[in-house]
Amino acid sequence: MAIGKQRSRRRRSRAGFILSVLFFVGFLLVSIKGYELLFDYAKSEQTFPISRVTVEGEFEFLTKEEIIDTVAKIAAGKNLVALDLAPVHNALLRMPWVSKVSVRKKMPDTLSVVIEEHHASARWRNSGYYDALSESVFYPDMQRFNLPLVNLSAQHDTLAAGLYAHAAKFIEMTKGTQYMIREVHLDATRGYRILLEGDVWLILGRAATEDMPFIRLKRFLLAFPQTKLKLSEISYVDLRYVNGFAVGDRNPPETVAPQ
What we know:
Layout: H1 2-42, E1 52-56, H2 64-75, H3 85-93, E2 98-106, E3 110-117, E4 122-124, E5 128-131, E6 136-138, E7 151-153, H4 160-174, E8 181-186, E9 191-196, E10 200-206, H5 212-227, E11 234-238, E12 246-249
Parallel strand pairs: 1-3, 4-7, 7-8, 10-11
Antiparallel strand pairs: 2-3, 4-5, 5-6, 8-9, 9-10, 11-12
Helix pairs in contact: 2-3, 4-5
């Protein structure tokens, strides 16, 4: 009798274990199916459609309307959950005055956009601007934005940061003098040239040492007033000499300063 009872208990235990396994498998299958249905529902075109775009940032040249319009062309009416933010982010970055972008989803129907606008520190090659904060060159519509800034130019955009740093020091050195800097150029030989108001070129030449351009500009500021020459009578001052400098008579308008 004892043996029969033990066998009966074993059968009930096995049956209970099998039922437990079947129940777990069934629960798992139902859960997976439910997840699939919920996922499909969440990604449906009719579920969580984007209907609002919020924009944060301080703008001088951008407008919230054009930012929202750019986002709406890509995201309006689409499912918020399923939306890939990369195309929205990239489209906003392509706007010329946009420096930095952050795009986030806010349930149930909103895209939140935070934008940092470029700061124009100098003109760049007459076709764009240089942003000293982000150390980048950007190219807006120059017919719409014509800011009175010093103009910088070099062969490549990658030279803009170094040129701007030099130009800023040149301008600081001439502050309070009669010499107003209009343009600063870095030519193909990496020589510095400054155009003063009145169309007079200061030719500083290549920087054999880091401070050489500043030494030559300082020499001009100290020595030129002693010559009694008038800026209106000359076209350039060549400061590439060890001692002193050469002065060129006023050239016809089509003639440029020597390289």
